[in-house]
Amino acid sequence: MKFGGTSVADLERIRNVARHVKREMDAGQEVAVVVSAMAGKTNELVAWCRETGSHFDNEEYDAIVASGELVTAGLLALALRDMGFQARSWQGWQIPILTDDAHGAARIQKIDGRALIEGFGRREIAVVAGFQGVHARTNRVTTLGRGGSDTSAVGLAAAIGADRCDIYTDVDGVYTTDPRVVPKARRLDKVSFEEMLEMASLGAKVLQVRSVEMAMVHKVRLYVRSSFDDPANPKLGTLICDEEDIMEQQIVTGIAFSRDEGQITLRDVADKPGVAAAIFGPLADANINVDMIIQVVSDDTTTTDLTFTVSGADFERAKSILANSREAIGFTKLSGAQDVVKISAIGVGMRSHSGVAARAFRALADKGINIRAITTSEIKFSVLIDEAYTELAVRTLHTLYGLDARG
Ligand code: ADP
Ligand code: ASP
Ligand code: MG
């Protein structure tokens, strides 16, 4: 059972979480719980790191931001004891949850589930601090990237051979799009791993991308549900499962959006072999992921324009790398925009239906929304548009593909 930040935001909510755990314990289950930091805590810690000085250090960053989860793990253990259960908190290194040393975005390498399983024999509930691990060689605390408690939970579920991994959050499942943006969004009973992976990668932050990847690889049954339900009588959530287990497939299952995008445009680059390599090579060397790429065919065939997107976090770095390789690339103008949003439609039905994206282009045009870039792949397509049109575009596509809730 994993509980996110809003679900443990204060002591009353932590007591409520304990009641959810009680229900499962009373039903005879063995339970390990993973908790996030209280809502807003990680943001506060991140801000403190930035404000403290100019000597930013990734290892200290992790030591600091991992602390939020330690508090909630201890508090939940206390709340459970108060209800008469045996419970103890676990910090990442105590289990241990071993990761690589990519501080701030570490990957889990190995989890030893034995100590937790031994505890189950004593009917002891394990309350594990999410989001964190330890690097074996340096013995330093690591964190798994924002939203990483989801991944802690799935990793732990795989390590102890859990029947299920329930992700409790502030919505009662995975919706056709972010319910905070589209009130007509609908809860999905089931979503395939592939679609969930795309939705998460394309901006639906309800699950961290790596948690879905890990669940897919280790065949963990993932269930997303609400912690705000009555603990004695919880309602349904969303099961993430194999495509074959979903009877009725829509063409489009969901709409995701990401505001964390930067668009970079190079004017008048030489139209000759090796130019793309000269542009994207240095970016790759700097670990910058490039997403949408559009190269314009030029009239005079000697120069061309090229535009592409990177994540918002990499935007400034990408621009300065390109400015520094101006000689090698040979462009006349470098420009960029961050007031853009990437809107994506996802659905395994796209494999077998044609013209799905074309309908979206028409619908967006009818609303006067200009498309700056497009990409498509097997089960999704994305368009880059002006950020000001985010809600209009998401709602337009949501309606277009018949996703609006009835009534
Ligand atoms: P937690 O703190 O529990 O990890 P998050 O804030 O990380 O919760 O994720 C839950 C939020 O994800 C919801 O409040 C919702 O606004 C957002 N969200 C975005 N896209 C979706 C979607 N397709 N379905 C459900 N929630 C979504
Ligand atoms: N507390 C961490 C974060 O806000 C991890 C998580 O909530 O999953 O990113
Ligand atoms: Mg989350």
For the sheet with most strands, the description reads:
8 strands, mixed
Query: Rough shape?
Result: globular
Low-confidence stretches: none
| Chain-averaged pLDDT | 96
Please identify the structural class as seen in this structure.
Answer: alpha/beta
Radius of gyration: 23 Å
Instruction: Give the number of DSSP strands.
Output: 20
Our estimate of the beta-strand percent is 25-35%
Spatial arrangement of strands, main beta sheet: 3-6-2-1-9-11-12-10
Task: Bin the helical content.
Answer: 25-40%
Number of helices: 13
Cα end-to-end separation:
33 Å
The unique ligands bound to this protein are: adenosine-5'-diphosphate, aspartic acid, magnesium ion
Structural write-up:
- The structure is a single chain.
- With 407 residues, the protein is α/β, with parallel strands linked by helices.
- 34% of the residues lie in helices and 25% in strands.
- It has 13 helices and 20 strands.
- The strands form 4 sheets. It has an 8-stranded mixed beta sheet, sandwiched between helices. Strands 5-4-7-8 form a 4-stranded mixed beta sheet.
- Strand 1, helix 1 and strand 2 form a beta-alpha-beta unit.
- Helix 6 packs parallel to helix 8 and helix 12 packs across helix 13.
- The chain is globular and about 80 Å long.
- The relative contact order is 0.11.
- The mean pLDDT is 96.
- The protein binds adenosine-5'-diphosphate, aspartic acid (ASP) and magnesium ion.
- Aspartic acid binds next to helix 6.
- The site of adenosine-5'-diphosphate has 19 residues, from loops.
